[in-house]
Automatic annotation (TrEMBL):
It is an enzyme of class 3 (hydrolase). The lineage of its organism: Bacteria, Pseudomonadati, Pseudomonadota, Alphaproteobacteria, Rhodobacterales. The gene is bipA. Keywords: Cytoplasm, GTP-binding, Hydrolase, Nucleotide-binding, Ribosome biogenesis, RNA-binding, rRNA-binding, tRNA-binding. This is Large ribosomal subunit assembly factor BipA. It comes from Brevirhabdus pacifica. One of its GO terms (molecular function) is rRNA binding.
Length: 605
Protein backbone atom coordinates (compact mmCIF):
# COMPACT_ATOMS: atom_id res chain seq x y z
CA UNK A 1 0.00 0.00 0.00
CA UNK A 2 1.15 3.56 -0.76
CA UNK A 3 2.36 5.24 2.46
CA UNK A 4 2.61 8.80 3.87
CA UNK A 5 3.92 9.87 7.29
CA UNK A 6 2.93 13.33 8.57
CA UNK A 7 2.90 15.25 11.86
CA UNK A 8 0.27 17.87 12.71
CA UNK A 9 1.93 20.71 14.61
CA UNK A 10 0.47 23.92 16.03
CA UNK A 11 0.40 26.19 19.03
CA UNK A 12 -1.70 25.15 22.03
CA UNK A 13 -5.48 25.44 21.44
CA UNK A 14 -5.25 26.00 17.69
CA UNK A 15 -7.31 22.86 17.01
CA UNK A 16 -4.92 19.98 16.17
CA UNK A 17 -6.73 17.24 18.07
CA UNK A 18 -10.17 18.37 16.88
CA UNK A 19 -8.93 18.26 13.27
CA UNK A 20 -7.53 14.72 13.79
CA UNK A 21 -10.99 13.70 15.12
CA UNK A 22 -12.55 14.81 11.83
CA UNK A 23 -9.83 13.12 9.74
CA UNK A 24 -10.58 9.84 11.53
CA UNK A 25 -14.34 10.21 10.99
CA UNK A 26 -14.17 11.17 7.30
CA UNK A 27 -11.62 8.49 6.37
CA UNK A 28 -14.04 5.74 7.44
CA UNK A 29 -12.03 4.72 10.52
CA UNK A 30 -15.23 4.53 12.59
CA UNK A 31 -18.18 2.25 11.84
CA UNK A 32 -21.50 3.92 11.03
CA UNK A 33 -22.96 3.12 14.45
CA UNK A 34 -19.74 3.35 16.49
CA UNK A 35 -19.82 5.53 19.59
CA UNK A 36 -17.08 8.17 19.38
CA UNK A 37 -15.61 10.60 21.89
CA UNK A 38 -14.52 14.19 21.35
CA UNK A 39 -10.72 14.67 21.16
CA UNK A 40 -10.21 10.90 20.75
CA UNK A 41 -6.40 11.29 20.61
CA UNK A 42 -6.28 12.92 24.07
CA UNK A 43 -6.61 9.57 25.83
CA UNK A 44 -4.77 10.54 29.04
CA UNK A 45 -6.91 11.73 32.00
CA UNK A 46 -4.84 14.88 32.49
CA UNK A 47 -5.07 15.72 28.79
CA UNK A 48 -8.86 15.56 28.93
CA UNK A 49 -9.09 17.57 32.17
CA UNK A 50 -6.78 20.34 31.01
CA UNK A 51 -7.87 20.35 27.37
CA UNK A 52 -4.28 20.12 26.08
CA UNK A 53 -2.17 17.46 24.36
CA UNK A 54 0.76 16.31 26.50
CA UNK A 55 2.00 13.16 24.72
CA UNK A 56 2.64 12.76 20.98
CA UNK A 57 0.53 9.88 19.64
CA UNK A 58 0.45 8.29 16.17
CA UNK A 59 -2.71 7.15 14.41
CA UNK A 60 -3.39 5.85 10.91
CA UNK A 61 -6.09 6.46 8.30
CA UNK A 62 -6.67 5.16 4.78
CA UNK A 63 -7.59 7.46 1.89
CA UNK A 64 -8.21 6.10 -1.61
CA UNK A 65 -5.62 3.32 -1.37
CA UNK A 66 -3.01 5.35 0.57
CA UNK A 67 -2.26 4.76 4.24
CA UNK A 68 -1.52 8.03 6.04
CA UNK A 69 0.24 7.77 9.42
CA UNK A 70 -0.62 10.95 11.39
CA UNK A 71 1.16 12.03 14.58
CA UNK A 72 -0.79 14.38 16.87
CA UNK A 73 1.78 16.48 18.76
CA UNK A 74 1.62 18.69 21.89
CA UNK A 75 1.21 22.42 21.33
CA UNK A 76 2.65 23.71 24.61
CA UNK A 77 6.31 24.76 24.69
CA UNK A 78 6.99 22.75 27.87
CA UNK A 79 6.35 19.52 25.93
CA UNK A 80 8.49 20.52 22.94
CA UNK A 81 10.79 17.53 23.54
CA UNK A 82 7.96 15.26 22.36
CA UNK A 83 7.73 17.15 19.05
CA UNK A 84 11.49 17.22 18.46
CA UNK A 85 11.64 13.42 18.63
CA UNK A 86 8.57 12.88 16.45
CA UNK A 87 9.88 14.95 13.52
CA UNK A 88 12.46 12.24 12.75
CA UNK A 89 9.58 9.79 12.06
CA UNK A 90 7.73 11.82 9.42
CA UNK A 91 8.26 13.07 5.85
CA UNK A 92 5.98 16.10 6.00
CA UNK A 93 4.22 18.42 8.44
CA UNK A 94 0.78 20.01 8.46
CA UNK A 95 1.23 23.37 10.20
CA UNK A 96 -2.06 24.47 11.75
CA UNK A 97 -2.41 28.21 12.40
CA UNK A 98 -5.35 29.96 14.04
CA UNK A 99 -6.62 32.48 11.47
CA UNK A 100 -7.24 35.04 14.24
CA UNK A 101 -4.08 34.65 16.33
CA UNK A 102 -1.58 33.90 13.55
CA UNK A 103 1.74 32.11 14.21
CA UNK A 104 2.50 31.88 17.93
CA UNK A 105 5.74 31.02 19.84
CA UNK A 106 5.34 27.23 19.72
CA UNK A 107 4.55 27.42 15.99
CA UNK A 108 7.85 29.23 15.49
CA UNK A 109 9.81 26.80 17.69
CA UNK A 110 8.55 23.61 16.03
CA UNK A 111 8.59 25.04 12.50
CA UNK A 112 12.29 25.92 12.86
CA UNK A 113 13.00 22.26 13.75
CA UNK A 114 10.88 20.97 10.83
CA UNK A 115 12.48 23.32 8.28
CA UNK A 116 15.98 22.42 9.49
CA UNK A 117 15.18 18.75 8.72
CA UNK A 118 14.17 19.70 5.17
CA UNK A 119 10.45 18.88 5.65
CA UNK A 120 8.09 20.67 3.24
CA UNK A 121 5.12 22.05 5.19
CA UNK A 122 1.42 22.30 4.33
CA UNK A 123 -0.16 25.35 6.01
CA UNK A 124 -3.78 25.06 7.19
CA UNK A 125 -5.45 28.29 8.34
CA UNK A 126 -7.90 26.96 10.92
CA UNK A 127 -11.00 28.58 12.48
CA UNK A 128 -11.56 30.88 9.48
CA UNK A 129 -15.30 30.89 10.32
CA UNK A 130 -14.69 32.80 13.57
CA UNK A 131 -15.84 36.45 13.53
CA UNK A 132 -12.35 37.81 14.36
CA UNK A 133 -10.51 35.65 11.78
CA UNK A 134 -8.05 37.41 9.47
CA UNK A 135 -6.76 34.58 7.23
CA UNK A 136 -4.86 36.84 4.79
CA UNK A 137 -2.91 38.51 7.60
CA UNK A 138 -2.19 35.13 9.23
CA UNK A 139 -0.96 33.73 5.88
CA UNK A 140 1.40 36.69 5.36
CA UNK A 141 2.73 36.25 8.91
CA UNK A 142 3.40 32.54 8.22
CA UNK A 143 5.37 33.45 5.06
CA UNK A 144 7.38 36.07 7.00
CA UNK A 145 8.05 33.50 9.74
CA UNK A 146 9.32 30.91 7.21
CA UNK A 147 11.56 33.54 5.59
CA UNK A 148 13.01 34.56 8.97
CA UNK A 149 13.76 30.88 9.71
CA UNK A 150 15.87 30.56 6.51
CA UNK A 151 13.41 28.30 4.66
CA UNK A 152 14.57 27.31 1.16
CA UNK A 153 12.62 28.13 -2.02
CA UNK A 154 10.78 24.78 -1.99
CA UNK A 155 9.64 25.32 1.61
CA UNK A 156 8.60 28.93 0.95
CA UNK A 157 6.44 27.76 -1.95
CA UNK A 158 4.08 26.02 0.48
CA UNK A 159 0.47 25.10 -0.36
CA UNK A 160 -2.22 26.40 1.99
CA UNK A 161 -5.83 25.57 2.82
CA UNK A 162 -8.62 27.37 4.66
CA UNK A 163 -10.35 25.16 7.22
CA UNK A 164 -12.62 24.75 10.21
CA UNK A 165 -11.56 21.65 12.16
CA UNK A 166 -14.67 21.69 14.36
CA UNK A 167 -17.01 21.90 11.34
CA UNK A 168 -14.94 19.31 9.45
CA UNK A 169 -14.04 21.06 6.17
CA UNK A 170 -10.95 22.34 4.35
CA UNK A 171 -10.87 24.16 1.00
CA UNK A 172 -8.23 25.68 -1.27
CA UNK A 173 -10.33 28.87 -1.53
CA UNK A 174 -11.84 30.89 1.31
CA UNK A 175 -15.27 30.86 -0.36
CA UNK A 176 -15.11 27.14 -1.30
CA UNK A 177 -17.94 24.61 -0.83
CA UNK A 178 -17.07 24.00 2.89
CA UNK A 179 -18.19 20.37 2.63
CA UNK A 180 -15.45 17.98 3.88
CA UNK A 181 -11.70 17.43 4.35
CA UNK A 182 -11.10 15.78 0.94
CA UNK A 183 -8.93 18.73 -0.15
CA UNK A 184 -6.59 18.14 2.83
CA UNK A 185 -6.36 14.36 2.25
CA UNK A 186 -5.61 14.87 -1.46
CA UNK A 187 -3.02 17.56 -0.75
CA UNK A 188 -1.20 15.32 1.75
CA UNK A 189 -1.05 12.45 -0.77
CA UNK A 190 0.12 14.83 -3.51
CA UNK A 191 2.55 17.07 -1.60
CA UNK A 192 4.16 14.77 1.00
CA UNK A 193 6.68 12.33 -0.52
CA UNK A 194 6.46 8.58 0.18
CA UNK A 195 9.01 7.44 2.79
CA UNK A 196 12.46 7.30 1.20
CA UNK A 197 13.07 4.26 3.40
CA UNK A 198 10.90 2.17 1.06
CA UNK A 199 13.84 2.11 -1.36
CA UNK A 200 15.92 0.27 1.28
CA UNK A 201 13.72 -2.84 1.67
CA UNK A 202 16.58 -5.20 0.80
CA UNK A 203 19.07 -3.81 3.34
CA UNK A 204 19.53 -5.11 6.94
CA UNK A 205 16.81 -4.09 9.41
CA UNK A 206 17.30 -0.78 11.28
CA UNK A 207 14.88 1.32 13.35
CA UNK A 208 15.39 4.37 15.60
CA UNK A 209 13.37 4.16 18.84
CA UNK A 210 11.38 7.40 19.24
CA UNK A 211 8.92 6.77 22.08
CA UNK A 212 8.88 4.29 24.96
CA UNK A 213 5.75 2.77 26.46
CA UNK A 214 4.86 -0.05 28.83
CA UNK A 215 2.19 -2.72 28.51
CA UNK A 216 1.15 -5.06 31.36
CA UNK A 217 1.23 -8.07 28.98
CA UNK A 218 4.06 -7.18 26.56
CA UNK A 219 6.44 -5.29 28.87
CA UNK A 220 8.53 -2.51 27.33
CA UNK A 221 7.28 -1.28 23.96
CA UNK A 222 9.37 0.91 21.65
CA UNK A 223 7.83 2.87 18.78
CA UNK A 224 9.69 4.24 15.77
CA UNK A 225 9.92 4.26 12.00
CA UNK A 226 11.63 1.37 10.20
CA UNK A 227 14.57 2.99 8.36
CA UNK A 228 15.61 -0.04 6.29
CA UNK A 229 14.89 -3.73 5.76
CA UNK A 230 12.08 -5.89 7.13
CA UNK A 231 11.38 -7.38 10.55
CA UNK A 232 9.38 -10.52 11.33
CA UNK A 233 7.96 -11.63 14.68
CA UNK A 234 10.42 -14.04 16.37
CA UNK A 235 13.53 -12.52 14.75
CA UNK A 236 16.57 -11.89 16.94
CA UNK A 237 17.84 -8.29 16.85
CA UNK A 238 20.15 -6.08 18.88
CA UNK A 239 19.96 -2.60 20.42
CA UNK A 240 22.81 -0.10 19.93
CA UNK A 241 23.29 3.11 21.91
CA UNK A 242 23.88 6.51 20.25
CA UNK A 243 27.65 5.93 20.36
CA UNK A 244 27.43 2.39 18.98
CA UNK A 245 27.71 0.36 22.20
CA UNK A 246 25.76 -2.91 22.21
CA UNK A 247 23.06 -2.68 24.88
CA UNK A 248 21.31 -6.03 24.50
CA UNK A 249 20.28 -8.78 22.11
CA UNK A 250 16.65 -9.90 22.18
CA UNK A 251 13.93 -11.79 20.35
CA UNK A 252 11.03 -9.72 18.97
CA UNK A 253 7.87 -11.06 20.62
CA UNK A 254 5.33 -8.71 18.98
CA UNK A 255 5.09 -6.13 16.21
CA UNK A 256 2.16 -3.74 16.17
CA UNK A 257 1.15 -1.14 13.57
CA UNK A 258 -1.26 1.77 13.99
CA UNK A 259 -4.60 1.19 12.33
CA UNK A 260 -7.03 3.97 13.23
CA UNK A 261 -7.05 4.56 16.98
CA UNK A 262 -6.05 0.98 17.78
CA UNK A 263 -2.84 -0.97 17.28
CA UNK A 264 -3.01 -4.27 15.40
CA UNK A 265 -0.59 -7.19 15.53
CA UNK A 266 1.25 -7.69 12.24
CA UNK A 267 3.64 -10.44 11.20
CA UNK A 268 6.13 -8.28 9.32
CA UNK A 269 7.23 -4.62 9.50
CA UNK A 270 8.52 -2.97 6.33
CA UNK A 271 10.79 0.02 5.74
CA UNK A 272 8.94 3.35 6.02
CA UNK A 273 6.13 2.22 8.33
CA UNK A 274 5.73 3.41 11.95
CA UNK A 275 5.52 0.37 14.25
CA UNK A 276 5.83 -0.66 17.91
CA UNK A 277 7.91 -3.68 18.90
CA UNK A 278 8.16 -5.64 22.17
CA UNK A 279 10.66 -8.07 23.63
CA UNK A 280 13.48 -5.82 24.90
CA UNK A 281 14.38 -5.27 28.55
CA UNK A 282 16.96 -2.44 28.42
CA UNK A 283 16.68 -0.60 25.07
CA UNK A 284 15.23 2.89 25.33
CA UNK A 285 14.51 6.13 23.43
CA UNK A 286 17.18 7.21 20.87
CA UNK A 287 18.64 3.67 20.68
CA UNK A 288 18.90 1.90 17.33
CA UNK A 289 17.13 -1.49 17.02
CA UNK A 290 18.84 -3.36 14.20
CA UNK A 291 19.88 -6.68 12.68
CA UNK A 292 22.86 -8.45 14.31
CA UNK A 293 25.10 -7.64 11.33
CA UNK A 294 24.65 -3.85 11.70
CA UNK A 295 27.46 -2.05 13.56
CA UNK A 296 26.67 1.68 13.18
CA UNK A 297 23.71 3.31 15.01
CA UNK A 298 21.30 5.73 13.33
CA UNK A 299 21.88 9.43 14.16
CA UNK A 300 19.43 10.65 16.83
CA UNK A 301 17.93 14.13 16.62
CA UNK A 302 19.54 16.39 19.31
CA UNK A 303 17.10 17.62 21.97
CA UNK A 304 17.21 21.16 23.37
CA UNK A 305 18.56 21.21 26.96
CA UNK A 306 16.34 21.75 30.05
CA UNK A 307 16.03 25.31 31.38
CA UNK A 308 14.73 24.86 34.95
CA UNK A 309 15.31 22.45 37.83
CA UNK A 310 13.00 21.47 40.68
CA UNK A 311 14.04 19.45 43.74
CA UNK A 312 11.80 16.45 44.56
CA UNK A 313 12.17 15.21 48.14
CA UNK A 314 10.40 12.99 50.63
CA UNK A 315 7.50 14.45 52.58
CA UNK A 316 8.86 14.96 56.11
CA UNK A 317 6.01 17.06 57.54
CA UNK A 318 4.03 15.96 60.66
CA UNK A 319 1.17 14.91 58.33
CA UNK A 320 3.37 12.63 56.21
CA UNK A 321 2.11 9.16 55.31
CA UNK A 322 -1.59 9.81 55.97
CA UNK A 323 -2.72 9.98 52.32
CA UNK A 324 -0.12 8.28 50.15
CA UNK A 325 1.38 4.81 50.10
CA UNK A 326 4.61 5.67 48.23
CA UNK A 327 6.67 7.82 50.57
CA UNK A 328 10.23 6.39 50.55
CA UNK A 329 13.04 8.14 48.65
CA UNK A 330 13.93 4.84 46.91
CA UNK A 331 10.44 4.54 45.42
CA UNK A 332 10.44 8.22 44.37
CA UNK A 333 13.84 7.76 42.69
CA UNK A 334 12.65 4.70 40.73
CA UNK A 335 9.60 6.60 39.45
CA UNK A 336 11.66 9.65 38.39
CA UNK A 337 14.24 7.49 36.60
CA UNK A 338 11.42 5.70 34.75
CA UNK A 339 10.06 9.11 33.68
CA UNK A 340 13.47 10.33 32.50
CA UNK A 341 13.87 7.18 30.42
CA UNK A 342 10.72 7.77 28.37
CA UNK A 343 10.81 11.59 28.39
CA UNK A 344 14.09 12.78 26.88
CA UNK A 345 13.41 16.43 27.84
CA UNK A 346 13.75 15.53 31.56
CA UNK A 347 17.05 14.89 33.41
CA UNK A 348 17.24 13.48 36.96
CA UNK A 349 20.28 13.76 39.27
CA UNK A 350 20.75 12.68 42.90
CA UNK A 351 21.55 15.35 45.49
CA UNK A 352 24.18 14.74 48.22
CA UNK A 353 22.61 12.55 50.90
CA UNK A 354 20.24 10.77 48.51
CA UNK A 355 17.06 12.07 50.19
CA UNK A 356 16.15 14.45 47.32
CA UNK A 357 16.49 14.52 43.54
CA UNK A 358 17.02 17.39 41.13
CA UNK A 359 14.70 17.13 38.12
CA UNK A 360 15.54 19.39 35.17
CA UNK A 361 12.90 20.14 32.54
CA UNK A 362 11.45 22.72 30.14
CA UNK A 363 9.02 24.62 32.38
CA UNK A 364 6.66 24.79 35.34
CA UNK A 365 3.77 23.16 33.43
CA UNK A 366 5.88 20.13 32.50
CA UNK A 367 6.93 19.73 36.15
CA UNK A 368 3.33 20.25 37.29
CA UNK A 369 2.08 17.47 35.00
CA UNK A 370 4.78 15.05 36.28
CA UNK A 371 3.96 15.88 39.93
CA UNK A 372 0.21 15.57 39.30
CA UNK A 373 0.70 12.13 37.73
CA UNK A 374 2.82 11.03 40.70
CA UNK A 375 0.33 12.21 43.34
CA UNK A 376 -2.44 10.31 41.50
CA UNK A 377 -0.25 7.21 41.69
CA UNK A 378 -0.10 7.53 45.51
CA UNK A 379 3.18 9.42 46.01
CA UNK A 380 3.85 11.99 48.73
CA UNK A 381 6.48 14.61 47.85
CA UNK A 382 7.98 17.90 48.92
CA UNK A 383 8.76 20.21 46.00
CA UNK A 384 11.16 23.17 45.97
CA UNK A 385 10.88 26.47 44.11
CA UNK A 386 12.00 26.12 40.46
CA UNK A 387 15.57 27.26 39.80
CA UNK A 388 16.96 28.28 36.43
CA UNK A 389 19.77 26.25 34.81
CA UNK A 390 22.86 28.43 34.13
CA UNK A 391 25.69 27.79 31.68
CA UNK A 392 29.35 28.83 31.56
CA UNK A 393 30.49 30.15 28.17
CA UNK A 394 33.99 31.65 27.74
CA UNK A 395 34.15 32.29 31.48
CA UNK A 396 30.82 34.17 31.48
CA UNK A 397 27.65 33.00 33.23
CA UNK A 398 24.78 32.59 30.73
CA UNK A 399 21.08 32.23 31.51
CA UNK A 400 18.09 31.10 29.38
CA UNK A 401 15.99 33.81 27.74
CA UNK A 402 12.40 33.13 26.68
CA UNK A 403 10.37 34.79 23.95
CA UNK A 404 7.09 35.88 25.52
CA UNK A 405 4.05 36.68 23.37
CA UNK A 406 1.26 38.48 25.21
CA UNK A 407 -2.24 39.35 23.96
CA UNK A 408 -3.85 41.84 26.31
CA UNK A 409 -6.64 44.45 26.34
CA UNK A 410 -5.27 47.88 25.40
CA UNK A 411 -6.01 49.36 28.85
CA UNK A 412 -3.74 46.85 30.62
CA UNK A 413 -0.77 46.95 28.21
CA UNK A 414 1.04 49.68 30.19
CA UNK A 415 1.00 47.69 33.45
CA UNK A 416 2.24 44.53 31.66
CA UNK A 417 5.11 46.33 29.87
CA UNK A 418 6.15 48.04 33.11
CA UNK A 419 6.38 44.67 34.90
CA UNK A 420 8.26 42.67 32.25
CA UNK A 421 10.74 45.40 31.24
CA UNK A 422 11.24 46.77 34.76
CA UNK A 423 11.77 44.44 37.70
CA UNK A 424 11.82 41.30 35.51
CA UNK A 425 14.65 42.58 33.24
CA UNK A 426 12.90 41.85 29.91
CA UNK A 427 13.51 43.59 26.56
CA UNK A 428 10.51 44.78 24.53
CA UNK A 429 10.86 43.50 20.94
CA UNK A 430 7.52 44.38 19.35
CA UNK A 431 4.22 45.99 20.27
CA UNK A 432 1.30 46.33 17.87
CA UNK A 433 -2.47 46.40 17.65
CA UNK A 434 -4.01 42.93 17.28
CA UNK A 435 -7.58 44.10 16.55
CA UNK A 436 -10.72 43.93 18.71
CA UNK A 437 -9.20 46.30 21.30
CA UNK A 438 -6.20 44.00 21.92
CA UNK A 439 -2.47 44.72 21.92
CA UNK A 440 0.17 42.10 21.08
CA UNK A 441 3.43 42.45 23.01
CA UNK A 442 6.53 40.39 22.19
CA UNK A 443 9.44 40.54 24.65
CA UNK A 444 12.60 38.59 25.50
CA UNK A 445 12.56 37.91 29.24
CA UNK A 446 14.96 35.84 31.44
CA UNK A 447 13.39 32.54 32.55
CA UNK A 448 14.06 33.64 36.16
CA UNK A 449 11.81 36.64 35.66
CA UNK A 450 8.89 34.48 34.52
CA UNK A 451 8.88 32.11 37.51
CA UNK A 452 5.80 33.05 39.51
CA UNK A 453 4.77 35.82 37.11
CA UNK A 454 1.70 34.19 35.55
CA UNK A 455 -0.56 34.72 38.60
CA UNK A 456 0.55 38.35 38.86
CA UNK A 457 -0.09 38.76 35.11
CA UNK A 458 -3.67 37.47 35.41
CA UNK A 459 -4.28 39.88 38.31
CA UNK A 460 -2.88 42.83 36.32
CA UNK A 461 -5.06 42.00 33.28
CA UNK A 462 -8.21 41.07 35.29
CA UNK A 463 -7.94 37.52 33.95
CA UNK A 464 -8.31 38.57 30.30
CA UNK A 465 -4.64 38.40 29.18
CA UNK A 466 -3.05 35.46 27.35
CA UNK A 467 0.66 34.77 27.83
CA UNK A 468 2.69 32.28 25.76
CA UNK A 469 6.40 31.57 26.16
CA UNK A 470 9.06 29.52 24.43
CA UNK A 471 12.85 29.17 24.85
CA UNK A 472 14.68 31.73 22.69
CA UNK A 473 18.43 31.76 23.45
CA UNK A 474 21.18 31.96 26.07
CA UNK A 475 22.34 35.42 27.13
CA UNK A 476 24.72 36.91 29.75
CA UNK A 477 23.34 36.98 33.31
CA UNK A 478 21.12 40.06 33.75
CA UNK A 479 21.59 40.60 37.49
CA UNK A 480 19.33 40.16 40.49
CA UNK A 481 15.56 39.87 39.97
CA UNK A 482 13.40 40.57 43.05
CA UNK A 483 11.20 37.71 44.24
CA UNK A 484 7.79 37.75 45.91
CA UNK A 485 7.07 41.02 47.73
CA UNK A 486 4.59 39.78 50.33
CA UNK A 487 5.47 37.76 53.41
CA UNK A 488 3.47 34.74 54.61
CA UNK A 489 1.38 33.77 57.63
CA UNK A 490 2.95 30.78 59.41
CA UNK A 491 1.27 28.48 61.91
CA UNK A 492 2.89 28.38 65.36
CA UNK A 493 0.81 25.40 66.58
CA UNK A 494 -0.10 21.81 65.64
CA UNK A 495 -3.78 20.88 65.46
CA UNK A 496 -6.98 21.71 63.57
CA UNK A 497 -7.73 25.25 62.41
CA UNK A 498 -10.60 27.08 64.19
CA UNK A 499 -13.01 29.40 62.34
CA UNK A 500 -12.95 32.03 65.12
CA UNK A 501 -9.13 32.25 65.06
CA UNK A 502 -9.02 32.63 61.26
CA UNK A 503 -11.80 35.26 61.42
CA UNK A 504 -9.82 37.33 63.92
CA UNK A 505 -6.70 37.07 61.71
CA UNK A 506 -8.37 38.07 58.43
CA UNK A 507 -7.11 41.65 58.63
CA UNK A 508 -3.54 40.26 58.58
CA UNK A 509 -3.83 38.92 55.01
CA UNK A 510 -5.57 36.37 52.82
CA UNK A 511 -5.73 32.69 53.77
CA UNK A 512 -5.00 29.54 51.74
CA UNK A 513 -6.88 27.29 54.23
CA UNK A 514 -10.34 27.19 55.74
CA UNK A 515 -11.70 26.08 59.10
CA UNK A 516 -11.36 22.52 60.41
CA UNK A 517 -8.25 21.74 58.38
CA UNK A 518 -5.15 20.04 59.86
CA UNK A 519 -2.25 22.47 60.43
CA UNK A 520 1.24 22.14 61.91
CA UNK A 521 4.07 24.32 63.12
CA UNK A 522 5.83 25.91 60.13
CA UNK A 523 2.92 25.39 57.70
CA UNK A 524 2.05 28.42 55.55
CA UNK A 525 -1.57 29.40 56.15
CA UNK A 526 -1.80 32.42 53.87
CA UNK A 527 -0.21 35.58 52.48
CA UNK A 528 0.68 38.42 54.87
CA UNK A 529 -0.50 41.92 53.93
CA UNK A 530 3.04 43.20 54.61
CA UNK A 531 6.47 42.16 53.35
CA UNK A 532 7.55 40.22 56.46
CA UNK A 533 6.63 36.71 57.67
CA UNK A 534 4.27 36.53 60.65
CA UNK A 535 3.68 33.59 63.01
CA UNK A 536 0.02 33.23 63.99
CA UNK A 537 -2.11 30.87 66.08
CA UNK A 538 -4.94 29.36 63.98
CA UNK A 539 -6.20 27.22 66.92
CA UNK A 540 -7.21 29.97 69.35
CA UNK A 541 -10.94 29.60 70.13
CA UNK A 542 -13.29 32.13 71.67
CA UNK A 543 -12.96 32.66 75.40
CA UNK A 544 -16.17 31.26 76.89
CA UNK A 545 -17.82 32.65 80.07
CA UNK A 546 -21.02 31.82 81.93
CA UNK A 547 -22.33 35.34 81.35
CA UNK A 548 -24.48 35.97 78.29
CA UNK A 549 -25.67 39.33 77.10
CA UNK A 550 -27.63 40.21 73.99
CA UNK A 551 -25.43 41.41 71.14
CA UNK A 552 -22.15 39.99 72.41
CA UNK A 553 -22.13 36.97 70.05
CA UNK A 554 -20.95 37.90 66.58
CA UNK A 555 -21.57 35.63 63.61
CA UNK A 556 -18.32 34.19 62.23
CA UNK A 557 -18.30 34.62 58.45
CA UNK A 558 -15.00 33.64 56.86
CA UNK A 559 -13.81 35.00 53.54
CA UNK A 560 -13.48 32.15 51.01
CA UNK A 561 -9.83 30.99 51.08
CA UNK A 562 -7.61 31.24 48.01
CA UNK A 563 -7.17 27.75 46.53
CA UNK A 564 -3.83 27.40 44.75
CA UNK A 565 -3.43 24.90 41.92
CA UNK A 566 -0.28 22.80 41.84
CA UNK A 567 1.45 25.06 39.26
CA UNK A 568 0.42 28.20 41.16
CA UNK A 569 1.76 26.77 44.43
CA UNK A 570 5.12 25.85 42.86
CA UNK A 571 5.42 29.32 41.31
CA UNK A 572 4.31 31.09 44.54
CA UNK A 573 6.81 29.70 47.05
CA UNK A 574 10.12 31.36 47.91
CA UNK A 575 13.56 29.76 48.14
CA UNK A 576 13.11 28.87 51.85
CA UNK A 577 9.70 27.24 51.29
CA UNK A 578 8.37 23.94 49.94
CA UNK A 579 5.13 22.57 48.47
CA UNK A 580 3.89 19.45 50.26
CA UNK A 581 2.05 17.28 47.71
CA UNK A 582 -0.08 14.27 48.70
CA UNK A 583 -2.88 12.45 46.82
CA UNK A 584 -5.51 14.53 48.67
CA UNK A 585 -3.80 17.82 49.53
CA UNK A 586 -1.46 20.58 48.37
CA UNK A 587 0.06 22.49 51.30
CA UNK A 588 2.77 25.14 51.57
CA UNK A 589 5.35 25.06 54.36
CA UNK A 590 8.63 26.53 55.45
CA UNK A 591 11.68 24.41 54.61
CA UNK A 592 12.66 24.34 58.31
CA UNK A 593 9.66 23.55 60.51
CA UNK A 594 11.39 24.27 63.83
CA UNK A 595 11.07 28.05 64.52
CA UNK A 596 14.55 28.27 66.17
CA UNK A 597 16.18 26.53 63.19
CA UNK A 598 14.20 28.78 60.85
CA UNK A 599 15.50 31.94 62.56
CA UNK A 600 19.06 30.59 62.61
CA UNK A 601 18.89 29.82 58.88
CA UNK A 602 17.44 33.26 58.03
CA UNK A 603 20.27 34.94 59.99
CA UNK A 604 22.81 32.73 58.19
CA UNK A 605 21.18 33.55 54.83
Amino acid sequence: MDLRNIAIIAHVDHGKTTLVDELLKQSGTYRENQATTERAMDSNDLERERGITIFAKPTSVEWKGTRINIVDTPGHADFGGEVERILSMVDGVVLLVDAAEGPMPQTKFVTSKALALGLRPIVVLNKVDKPDAEPDRALNEVFDLFASLDADDDQLDFPHLYASGRSGWADAELDGPRKDLAALFNLVVRHVPPPRQQKHQDEPFRMLATTLGADPFMGRVLTGRVESGKLKVGATVQALSRIGEKIEQFRVTKIQAFRGLAQQDIEEAQAGDIVSIAGMTKATVADTICALAVEDPLPAQPIDPPTITVTFGINDSPLAGRDGKKVQSRVIRERLMKEAESNVAIKVTDTPGGEAFEVAGRGELQMGVLIENMRREGFELSISRPQVVFRELDGQQMEPIEEVTIDVDDEYSGAVIEKITGSRKGDLIEMRQAGAGKTRIIAHVPSRGLIGYHGEFLTDTRGTGVLNRVFHSWAPHKGAIPGRRQGVLISMENGTSVAYALWKLEDRGKFFIGAQEPVYQGMILGEHSRDNDLEVNPLKGKQLTNVRASGTDEAVRLTTPVTLTLEQAIAYIDDDELVEVTPNAIRLRKRFLDPHERKRQSRAG
